[in-house]
Input
Amino acid sequence: MTRTRLAAALAAVLLSGTAGGAAEQAAVPAADDPALSQECRVPGAQLYTVAQLGAVKAALAENRPLRILAIGGSAAPGASASYPAKLEAALEHALPRVDVVIDHRGLPGEIASGAAERLRTMVAEAEPDLVVWQVGTHDAIARVDVDAFASALTEAVGWMRSHGIDVVLVDPIYTASMAADVDYNRIVEAVRSVATQQGVPLVRRYEALQYLSRRSDKGEGHMLGRQFRLNDLGLRCMAEHVALTIATSLTRTEAPKEPKAAPAQPPLTEPQRAPG
Output
């Protein structure tokens, strides 16, 4: 699907007022999509799973700025610091004439060990329409219990959705050194499972980086820097992949799937957000 066709499809959906659909496998042949840079093109089935983004759609329909909280990764100076600008540029390319406001915050530590609590504070402060969450890499490296991780992630995603906030999950980074590691791959699968159960879009970063690494003579060094951090090209590709996942999700028109209930959590601080 070309950028022009994607924009036209998005406009038609917004005009119709039809809600987006439940999580489903990508059907767009993204490997040939000019919305992605040549260096970043990955087959759609290996790039994303799409789902309803009701809060994003409402922001666009109301012609107001789209507020995004991007969490995970590093917010410290260095290559990672350029990610918000790359994501903003990619989104404004994928969603023409949309004003995007991005708040990027690092979320150190494992989700299963309390980082999800800090996430709730960040969300209450930023009041976003959408949270883009790079999740799982810290937990996988730390060898956390996969069931505890999945439970904490399910709870956090369910809490955000119950407050009318859309969520896009980005699964862990691919590296050849961990490709055969059973525990690492169980965390990757847990992120995918939670995305499906909760009905939220998923950027399949692990598969995308694996695909791109195999295309390059440099292997994973083409995209990956030190200490499980993406280099400049890796960050640009991830930003483009996130933007395309969001834009493609907005064109889906099937009936939404109800997410599985999350345990009761403290209410969002004032002003209160309406449930989605």
